[in-house]
Amino acid sequence: MSRQVTVAVNGKSVSVPAGSTAAVAVAAVGLSQFRTSVDGEPRGPLCGMGICFECRVTINGRAHRRSCQTVCTAGMEICTDGP
Amino acid sequence: MSTKAADVVVIGAGIVGAACAWEFAREGMSVTLIDSGAPGGGATAAGMGHVAVMDDSEPQFALTRYSQQLWREIVDELPDDCEYETCGTLWIAADDEELAEVRRKQQAYTRRGIDAEVLDAAALARAEPNLRSGLAGALRVPGDLVVFPPCVARWLIAGATECGAQVRLGTAAVEISDRGVRLADDSLLPAGAIINATGHGAERLTPGLSLQPRKGHLAITDRYPGFIHHELIELGYLKSAAAVGTDSAAMNVQPRITGQMLIGSSRQTGQESTDVDMAILGRMLRRAMEYLPALARVSTIRTWTGFRAATADKLPLIGRCSSGQRSSQGRLYLATGHEGLGITMAPGTARLLVDAVMGRESAIPPEPYLPARLEKGDSA
Question: What is the distance between the alpha carbons of residues A39 and B301, in angstroms, rounded to a whole number?
Answer without folding.
Answer: 19
